[in-house]
Amino acid sequence: MEFQTVIGLEVHVELNTKSKIFCGCSTEFGAEPNTEVCPVCLGLPGALPVLNKKVVDYAIKTGLALNCDIARYTMMDRKNYFYPDSPKNYQITQDRFPICREGNVEIELGNGEKKSIGIERIHMEDDAGKLIHNEKETFIDFNRAGVPLLEIVSKPHMNSAEEAILYVEKLRSILTCIGVSDCKMEEGSLRVDLNISVKQVESKELGVRAEIKNLNSFKFLEKAVNYERERQIKAIENNEVLFMETRRWDEKNNITLSMRNKEEAQDYRYFPEGDILEMIISEKEIEDIKSTIPELEHEKKDRFIKEYNLSNYDASVLSKDYKLAHFFEKTVKSCKDSKAAVNWIMGDISCYLNENKLELNETKLKAENLGELIKLIKDKVISSTIGKKILVNIIEEGKSPKDIVKEKGLIQNNDEKAILEMIRGILSKNQDKVKEYLEGKGNLYTWFVGQIMKESRGKANPSIVNKLLKSEIENNFK
């Protein structure tokens, strides 16, 4: 039998508002446990919630960026369930009237094929607290309780781990670009619930789905999809009965484990939240928010290809990170060379960031300084080799490349007469190696260049070195 995987995702996004969704407590990450709390977010008797308007604005902004229909009438509901980190024993969320419906995002697969992933709904809700386990006890930190969330519910349009990851990456790119969330998975501000089932390819009926909760990395999402697909296929082939259930990812053993049978909507006893007024959203509000949405990833990518003549790959990487894209454009404005700018950013700078596990904005590198470095190389003031050597100083110290070159005496030597004398001296001292080179040991050419650059302390113009070295060997040693 041939099977098809069917995937839908529920993506929970923490909004980067300064205060919580129903009270004035701070949402700052990393505070001491249970210090950012009040009677409202602790669910104490008599405490009344007040909806944070910024959360509503961010929800509308997200819906518009994801091509959703925005509700003109919406309301909050209570979702009743008991869990230790839920201080109220219910969650304030949205059931029948979510703020956004029927959107879509487009992903581009590795083979270049594009696919539209439907979004069923987006709704607002409050987060729960956090359980902290050790070997003997479990503690609860309620700082996160009441942090505003958007839940983005996709349609079951994905069929592989690749598609699921591309979809979440696209969401993350859009959400960070429009400024509603930092989407830091390592801090829990973007979490994914995976709904997955398998069915025979020819069947029109969907399989029995399992929900894997709270996946907080792309690696775990990929592993969970692949493991759960194989688990379900094996169960079907062995004539085992599958049932709807909620599972968790065991990262130590790389398996999913059953937690409980999957709840249905009626199990939560949804009913309207009586302490929060219904909302009427006007056309003017929607249009005002729409006007604040910046250029999105796919729009930026197309423009970069057309305006800067970038490759599809380079444009894709830059456009996914709006900060990196902005840095690239500022660099180009400074040096007027898009090809050199993208080569430095995608090459040496990316290597430095990856090796040091840093984001660009965590360094002292300025676009103006990178542009200045590129111009120094273009104007043959320094060589690209020298440029690479001083790049770390520019990144870590934030100094001007001109100042570094002046301080360290690194101005490139373009004096052909002086370079020729240097070349003749090296060839004269190493005539045995010249003979070996002429007899076919071609890799010695690189050795000669290295010796010249060493003697010049890296200052000799490489193009002049190559031109004069070849000429000297051909004319005086053959």
TrEMBL record:
Q: Name a Pfam family for this protein.
A: GatB_N
Its job = Allows the formation of correctly charged Asn-tRNA(Asn) or Gln-tRNA(Gln) through the transamidation of misacylated Asp-tRNA(Asn) or Glu-tRNA(Gln) in organisms which lack either or both of asparaginyl-tRNA or glutaminyl-tRNA synthetases. The reaction takes place in the presence of glutamine and ATP through an activated phospho-Asp-tRNA(Asn) or phospho-Glu-tRNA(Gln).
Q: Which organism is it from?
A: Clostridium collagenovorans DSM 3089
* Reaction(s) catalysed (UniProt annotation): L-aspartyl-tRNA(Asn) + L-glutamine + ATP + H2O = L-asparaginyl-tRNA(Asn) + L-glutamate + ADP + phosphate + 2 H(+); L-glutamyl-tRNA(Gln) + L-glutamine + ATP + H2O = L-glutaminyl-tRNA(Gln) + L-glutamate + ADP + phosphate + H(+)
Q: What phylogenetic lineage does the species belong to?
A: Bacteria, Bacillati, Bacillota, Clostridia, Eubacteriales
What is one GO biological process annotated to this record?
translation
What superkingdom heads the lineage? Bacteria
Its EC number(s)? 6.3.5.-
State the family named in the UniProt similarity comment for this chain: Belongs to the GatB/GatE family. GatB subfamily.
Asn/Gln amidotransferase domain: from which residue to which, for each copy? Answer: 326-473
Name the Gene Ontology molecular function terms of this record.
asparaginyl-tRNA synthase (glutamine-hydrolyzing) activity; ATP binding; glutaminyl-tRNA synthase (glutamine-hydrolyzing) activity; transferase activity
Subunit field text: Heterotrimer of A, B and C subunits.
Mind telling me what this protein is named? Aspartyl/glutamyl-tRNA(Asn/Gln) amidotransferase subunit B
**NCBIfam families assigned to the protein according to its UniProt record, in alphabetical order:** gatB (TIGR00133), PRK05477.1-2 (NF004012), PRK05477.1-4 (NF004014)
**This protein's UniProt keywords:** ATP-binding, Ligase, Nucleotide-binding, Protein biosynthesis, Transferase
Q: Which portions of this protein are annotated as coiled-coil regions?
A: none
InterPro entries, A to Z: Asn/Gln-tRNA_amidoTrfase_suB/E, Asn/Gln-tRNA_Trfase_suB/E_cat, Asn/Gln_amidotransferase, Asn/Gln_tRNA_amidoTrase-B-like, GatB, GatB_C_1, GatB_Yqey_C_2, Gln-tRNA_amidoTrfase_suB_CS
